[in-house]
UniProtKB/TrEMBL annotation:
Signal peptide (from-to): none
Organism whose genome encodes this protein: Beutenbergia cavernae (strain ATCC BAA-8 / DSM 12333 / CCUG 43141 / JCM 11478 / NBRC 16432 / NCIMB 13614 / HKI 0122)
Record-given protein name: UDP-N-acetylglucosamine 1-carboxyvinyltransferase
GO molecular function, one term: DNA binding
Pathway(s): Cell wall biogenesis; peptidoglycan biosynthesis
One Pfam family of this chain: EPSP_synthase
Domain of life of the source: Bacteria
Family membership: Belongs to the EPSP synthase family. MurA subfamily.
InterPro entries associated with the record: Cro/C1-type_HTH, Enolpyruvate_Tfrase_dom, Enolpyruvate_Tfrase_sf, Lambda_DNA-bd_dom_sf, MurA_subfamily, RNA3'P_cycl/enolpyr_Trfase_a/b
CDD domains (UniProt xref): HTH_XRE
Length: 513
């Protein structure tokens, strides 16, 4: 259930919720319209977030969908009640990448023509970027089925009207720097409090963009940017950190730079490749896609009408595989981008997981390799070596937390080493509340000893996306009833996750109190 509060919830977010509930009920727009006594076009407008909603209409929608989806009043956190200890079964399909969609939305500012992004996940992070784009004059329209986005930037962006609230609620706003520096000589962007220049998460972006003439000063919650115009034609950018968003920012800056840019120590991860594939459609020539050295031949005037299908999300794929593994179930996870899961699968095989892969097939973007993976009930054991992330093609940092709950199901002790994030590992110690033996060695390392005799508990949701999902998945394995409180953060990166798990047989109830 989502509470409607004008200061917190946009019409687009409400429309996305209604569309997701309708689809989960197996209803077409016409069928829902019939139940409400309205037209299909009205339902389409509601789901696109382009129609105001009265209290009376919201009440009728609740009744028509036979669900307590919408409540009027002050914002209250949503919670999940999980009855665990049951095996799952069936097939679940991986949705498109959150990180890929965010990068592509930012990159659409490079194109003076129309961009259609196909298969975009309707998640909070996407809706916030869409709100920011609309506020600066970009025309952004969802298709009638709510799956595709049409994006048309204006000739001149109105950055003075930027939605500062939406911008400050997404760290992705920093990825506007690369697209804007070739459009504006001076501009300002809001940034989230506590994200100061000079910190580890921001300074690498500055290092990547200074060769393009960008100078940024942070004051009073804003980036104040100025761009020098006397930069060389051919640029050489060496990234001090092989970060995904840092690489994307450098690529977007290079896309409209007059000349050739060589980017070294570049990330070659899935969202970076998605961005490169899209830019190629715009006429930007990029050498070295999938490697750590990229050569971008910029085009100062990009004007093309293009369609691009966002690739599938390997982190969601890992989440769904984990659901099957920890519940000792046989489930099939369809449309897994296997190129970005190979180290994870090799590690799981070393731990004794039995699984089968379908023949490979190609994603809708024509580039990404997909498989269907069927996991089977398995006797797991701890790996000999520690489990740790590395830049692609290593184990994905966002997939590392899932190995904590998997290790808790395995015999023996597994060392989990999260060397990238300070203190993220502490959130995984909440698994002890469900019966796991998790010992924190330092802010970056955990010892996890199994197998665990899981039992239900009530836990407040960690303030980090992936650990939050890890706790939810552990609750699926825990006998009895568990409660996960304050789960709104999960909607930031997953579309209708609990509803889709329910389709596999999970017993999950959403409630508020």
């Amino acid at each position: 259930m989502t509470v409607i509060d004008d200061t917190q919830t946009s019409l687009a977010e409400i429309g996305a919720l209604i569309r997701g509930a309708r689809q989960n009920k197996g209803l077409t727009q016409a069928q829902l319209a019939e139940r409400l006594g309205t037209s299909q076009s009205a339902i389409a407008r509601i789901e696109q977030g382009s129609q105001n909603l009265s209290v009376e209409l919201l009440t009728r929608i609740n009744r028509a969908l036979e669900a307590d989806l919408l409540s009027i009043g002050g914002a209250r956190a949503s919670h999940l009640r999980v009855t665990g200890g049951h095996q799952l079964s069936g097939t679940i399909t991986v949705k498109s990448s959150k990180n890929g969609a965010v990068a592509l939305l930012c990159a659409s500012l490079l194109n003076s023509g129309r961009t259609r992004l196909r298969g975009v996940a309707r998640i909070v992070e996407v809706d916030r970027i869409v709100d920011v784009l609309r506020s600066i004059g970009v025309v952004v329209t969802w298709s009638a089925d709510g799956r595709d986005l049409d994006i048309q930037p204006p000739a001149k962006l109105d950055l003075t009207s930027i939605d500062t609230d939406a911008a400050r609620r997404t760290r992705s706003i920093i990825m506007f720097l690369g697209p804007l520096l070739n459009r504006e000589q001076t501009f300002e962007l809001p940034y989230a409090g506590g994200c100061d220049l000079g910190t580890r998460t921001v300074e690498p972006h500055m290092i990547a963009l200074r060769p393009f003439g960008l100078d940024v000063v942070a004051t009073a919650g804003e980036y104040h940017a100025t761009v020098a115009t006397d930069r060389p034609t051919d640029l050489r950018v060496v990234l001090t950190e092989r970060g995904d968003t840092v690489t994307e920012n450098a690529i977007m800056a290079a896309a409209r730079h007059v000349g050739t840019t060589t980017i070294r120590n570049a990330s070659s991860n899935y969202m970076v490749q998605d961005l490169c594939f899209y830019l190629e459609l715009l006429g930007v020539r990029i050498e070295g896609i999938g490697t750590t050295t990229l050569v971008v031949h910029g085009s100062p005037d990009i004007r093309a009408d293009v369609e691009y299908a966002v690739s599938e999300d390997p982190v969601e794929a890992m989440s769904l595989l984990t659901a099957g593994i920890v519940t000792n179930s046989e489930i099939t996870v369809a449309r897994v981008p296997v190129e970005f899961m190979e180290i994870e699968l090799a590690t799981l095989a070393e731990m004794g997981l039995r699984y089968a892969l379908s023949p490979e097939y190609t994603a809708a973007n024509g580039r990404t390799r997909l498989v269907d993976i069927t996991v089977q009930p398995s006797e797991l054991h701890a790996p000999i070596d520690k489990i740790h992330p590395m830049p692609f093609p290593g184990l994905n940092i966002d997939n590392l937390p899932f190995f904590a709950v998997i290790a808790a199901c395995a015999s023996g002790t597994t060392l989990i080493h999260d060397w990238v994030y300070d203190n993220r590992a502490i959130h995984l110690t909440d698994l002890t509340r469900l019966g796991a033996d998790v010992r924190m060695l330092d802010p970056h390392r955990l010892d996890v000893t199994g197998p665990t005799h899981w039992s239900g508990a009530e836990i407040s949701c960690p303030p980090a996306l992936r650990p939050a999902v890890v706790i939810l998945l552990a609750m699926l394995a825990a006998k009895g009833t568990s409660v996960l409180r304050g789960v709104d953060i999960i909607a930031r990166g997953y579309e209708q996750l609990q509803e889709r798990l329910i389709e596999l047989g999970a017993q999950i109830e959403t409630f508020r109190d």
